[in-house]
């Protein structure tokens, strides 16, 4: 009597490969990027330095950073063909579909798309890293009837991203908080969208195909779409005094409360304290104490009822609202950051590739034959 193999739905707890890019440790509630605690990187580095670290395994020295920054800044503008395709998309299209389509067009326009060498893929990775801010900024502006703002090579990554979106560089408090969010969102081992990128890469498909697939996976509200969904919840609740009543009704309907829970972290997401501190600076900067009160009221109510801790999307949503991004732009911001982690994993997958093809257990109708 053969025993049936165990089904591990959702691959929960299943270890499928090594990675040297990041370590997520639920026991110590920690996250390391190439060995560095993410909190230290968020406190001391720019997102450009962290992107370099994820791709190259070491932080850049001054000379390497200058060369990397010059390379990134020289590639921030969008090709006219990409702008034309974005302009063809209706304003009813979800911004994640706009980002996914724009990346697909960039790949289709790149004559070197098939160059899967480490150098070739690093070049594509830096190109997408440089261009995604322009895609996201342009999409928000066109939805408001505003013209595109050209990138400014004098500005760092986050200052430029915000200047292209809002037409001017906001205060240092805002730029710093945004940069922290980009660092925290950059990488998180084999999450669903990263694993999607690795699966596509494992067939030896190109980097652009893997990134487009990852964008599709990130869109879902159980994953990257949660930061947008958190803000919809905040808007639904309205004020702190209504949080408990709202939560009781939502839980009675068996709703998943967006921004809470995590497949790996079971005692809280290691990134939340750092992002919450950044959110707190924005609450002061924009004089929005009521948002902080709502954040705390819902979190407290959730701990009292389900003891399920917030994840990174919970503080990120309100932070992006305060900065001025439209709610539907929140997950595209996640894309702009996570493209660094995705592409690092694509290059790692290629370096020691094995086609990813799990098994399934058949439970359909028994074998039968045509008359
Ligand atoms: C991200 O993997 C990553 O690293 C992802 C990410 C990254 O950086 O890439 O960290 C980013 O995606 C963070 C997660 C964002 N998603 C959300 O905030 C959506 C809401 N969260 C849930 O859907 C849920 O917590 C998941 C999907 C995140 C994790 O779910 P699991 O591990 O599969 O756990 P589960 O759904 O099986 O839940 C276990 C129990 C269930 O209760 P029972 O049915 O067993 O009674 O906990 C409950 C769930 O109903 N539960 C929740 C809940 N999360 C878990 N109940 C209400 N609201 C929630 N948010």
Automatic annotation (TrEMBL):
Molecular function per GO: 2-methylcitrate synthase activity; citrate synthase activity
Swiss-Prot/TrEMBL keywords: Acyltransferase, Transferase, Tricarboxylic acid cycle
Reactions catalysed, as given in the entry: oxaloacetate + acetyl-CoA + H2O = citrate + CoA + H(+)
Pathway: Carbohydrate metabolism; tricarboxylic acid cycle
Keyword Transferase: yes
Pfam assignment, any one: Citrate_synt
InterPro entries in the cross-refs: 2-MeCitrate/Citrate_synth_II (IPR011278), Citrate_synth-like_lrg_a-sub (IPR016142), Citrate_synth-like_sm_a-sub (IPR016143), Citrate_synthase (IPR002020), Citrate_synthase_AS (IPR019810), Citrate_synthase_bac-typ (IPR024176), Citrate_synthase_sf (IPR036969)
Domain of life of the native organism: Bacteria
Family as reported in the entry's similarity comment: Belongs to the citrate synthase family.
This protein's name: Citrate synthase
